[in-house]
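Hi, here's the filled form for the chain we discussed.

Project: internal
Contact: R.S.
Residues: 787
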Amino acid sequence: MPSFLLLGAICIFLFSRVPPCLPLQKVHVSKETIGKISAASKMMWCSAAMDILFLLDGSHSVGKGSFERSKHFAITVCDALDISPEKVRVGAFQFGSMPHLEFPLDSFSTRQEVKAQIKRMVFNGGRTETGLALRHLLRRGFPGGRNGSVPQSLVIVTDGKSQGQVALLAKQLKEKGIIVFAVGIRFPRWAELRTLASEPQEQHVLLAEQVEDATNGLLSTLTSSALCSPAAPDCRAQAHPCAHRTLETIRELAGTAPCWRGAPRADAVLATRCPFYSWKRVLLSHPATCYRTTCPGACDSHPCQNGGTCIPEGLDRYHCLCPLAFGGEANCAAPKLSLECRIDVLFLLDRSSSTALEGFLRAKAFVKRFVQAVLSEDSRARVGVAGYSRELVVAVPVGEYQDMPDLVRSLDGIAFSGGPTFTGSALRQVAERGFGSAARPGQARPQRVVVLLTESPSQDEVAGPASRVRAHDLLLLALGSEAVRAELEEITGSPRHVMVYAEPQDLFSKVPELQEKLCVRPRSGCQAQSVDLIFLLDASASVGPENFAQMQSFVRSCALQFDVNPDVTQVGLVVYGGWAQTAFGLDAHLTRAAVLRAMSQAPYLGGVGSAGMALLHIYDKVMTVQRGARPGVLKVVVMVTGGRGAEDAAAPAQKLRSSGISVLVVGVGPVLRDALRRLAGPQHALIHVAAYSDLQYHQDALIEWICREAKRPVNLCMPSPCMHEGICVLRRGSYLCKCRDGWEGPHCENRVLRGDAPKARGSRQDPAGGLHTPGSQHLQWPGHPGS
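And the returned structure, exactly as it came back:
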């Protein structure tokens, strides 16, 4: 007979895997209450005299992993027990095929000893002979116990899959007055646990997989018997709805398949369709009641304001998850600030595609928070809001809303638009119509401030429009990401007017800083003065890279006070350490933005510094006509140094001063070195700064010193503009260069080639009043008197 005829049916067994971490008991309460249950489990204490015996299932059906979790539950319970010979005694049995005494109740007298012994218990395996363990206890009692003179509690931790009868034995134990807790492990058989447990079963059936919940349930039951007590008097045990889940195997029809059965005739086979089934392991849920103790929590008083969510951390601590607009403040409260000055503020929000919707909403939330924190009924400040991408839209005119809640609600109507980031165009329009007719009747115009919020570089030019805004006597402040710092400094004209943040959520911490800046009237430098300005930075090892970075920030801030272009101010930078290096010369960068970028990229050199070498480098290779210096223009060297390596600098500094170059020394350090005093020369040419972090507070003094120097008369021949040892001669508001043999040109810059016609000797006066001699050139500098 063919082998397929032997097939009577096709059965397919499918067992779906159920992860052990799946909750097999669920208490139907809020997350906040679950947190309170967990916290209260650590706040209860049992000091009444009683004997507690742990009976741990160590059979193969439990497995080694679940056995370790059983031990962890027993140890957690011990943390709440006042273990001593007179109060709480603890012992332990392990059972599998046979019961095994791990340690009697009178073996250890401290909690640490009991916990250590439980940790040392080794999984034995074997069958689940729960009945044998119960019969052993019925015959011999609690080993090392007090013979029933104190309350006795038996804590059985098992999966409830006993291979014998347990109901009668459990009943006999309970009739002897023993309190029996049945604590499930792994996928427990709840029906058997309820058979084992004392009445009421809801208070004595627990699940060890959820350690803190099970510990709370056990201690709550003992508390009701006055054997334990909660740490706080307001703690209460309450009934909560919960569900017990059981893992069961069920059979369901999966389909039919052809099969062959016998027929009345011996030589015939009957073909038909037979059903086949699949077997699945499923979780079935059974409603129950769980009694748990909870204590009043730190979040019960709802301390988190402005829509914040309170997250408890124990019973007496919490933290608040705050909305974006209130992150960083305690309890999500708006900071209590105020504006004491009369001021009109226009917030300018970037709503372009580069900033994206998230960035725009963050900027709106910042304005809301600022308004709520700063404005009050008696505030003298007025606020408006505008947005821009391609065009400027004044959504809330300055002063339109006097009531703060109305102003906050109006911000919700400002929509995101997308489009290009034309910050320059927006600034130009702000200067023209940003404040409209916001002047207050019968009063002088208040200070007007534009606060720009952007995280994206502009797609159009910003320097010109920003200058136009400042020319309208508007103060520009800016908040943005670190990526646009340089552009924001160019827009505002000073790093002090820029507030940057590394992470987006850090924007909201800038509210107090903005409040401080709004009422400070900016001091203007001598921006219109023509200056050739060289910054000399000490980049030696004695300074270090971190302090060098603070120097860079300081000179960037100073450079922003000047109108950088070839007709007004030129800026160069020299660094020195083991050698002197020109980071960039006077004619290298023609705009302020380019100068700022180049200053940020200046190298830190290290090595042993020589200030004298660096000053001579400036004299020979930087402050010269061929390197961009302009005759008839104030020339200034600002040296920032820690003072070491300045011993050889006094003579080179005097050489610069004798050539008409002003030298200012900014000495940093707690003690002013004598070498710096000698280097500085005149006392007014020295600024002493205690620490590198304090450099920012001395910017005004530096600018004022340069402005004073700009008032001094300028000698066109100092330093000499003539090259190759040519002699500079002043002549009626101009000068000429008398060149040595072999050189010619306005500054003696061109070599005379052999074979050229010989030059005439003697000098002559030209119609313009210039003196001409062989090899001499007469110059009149544009813009100088006499030109």
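Let me know if anything looks off before we file it.
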